[in-house]
């Protein structure tokens, strides 16, 4: 297992961690049964086939 030879400062560690940001999911608009839904691109085929239920808002 890799072990650092020197101690890393708090500022350096926090600066590195600050780059990890959550991103909002990219959504695609599709029409199913006359209703417009927004779903992630990887779920579009499943929603069109009726395998995944989309909640109404």
UniProtKB/TrEMBL annotation:
<dbReference type="GO" id="GO:0006412">
    <property type="term" value="P:translation"/>
</dbReference>
<dbReference type="GO" id="GO:0015934">
    <property type="term" value="C:large ribosomal subunit"/>
</dbReference>
<comment type="similarity">
    <text>Belongs to the bacterial ribosomal protein bL32 family.</text>
</comment>
<dbReference type="InterPro" id="IPR011332">
    <property type="entry name" value="Ribosomal_zn-bd"/>
</dbReference>
<dbReference type="Pfam" id="PF01783">
    <property type="entry name" value="Ribosomal_L32p"/>
</dbReference>
<protein>
    <recommendedName>
        <fullName>Large ribosomal subunit protein bL32</fullName>
    </recommendedName>
</protein>
<dbReference type="InterPro" id="IPR002677">
    <property type="entry name" value="Ribosomal_bL32"/>
</dbReference>
<keyword id="KW-0689">Ribosomal protein</keyword>
<keyword id="KW-0687">Ribonucleoprotein</keyword>
<dbReference type="GO" id="GO:0003735">
    <property type="term" value="F:structural constituent of ribosome"/>
</dbReference>
């Amino acid at each position: 297992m890799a072990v650092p030879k020197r101690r890393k400062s708090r500022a350096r560690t926090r600066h590195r961690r600050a780059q990890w940001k959550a991103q909002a999911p990219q959504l695609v608009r599709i029409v199913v049964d006359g209703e417009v839904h927004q779903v992630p691109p990887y779920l579009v085929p499943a929603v069109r086939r009726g395998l995944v239920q989309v909640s109404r808002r």
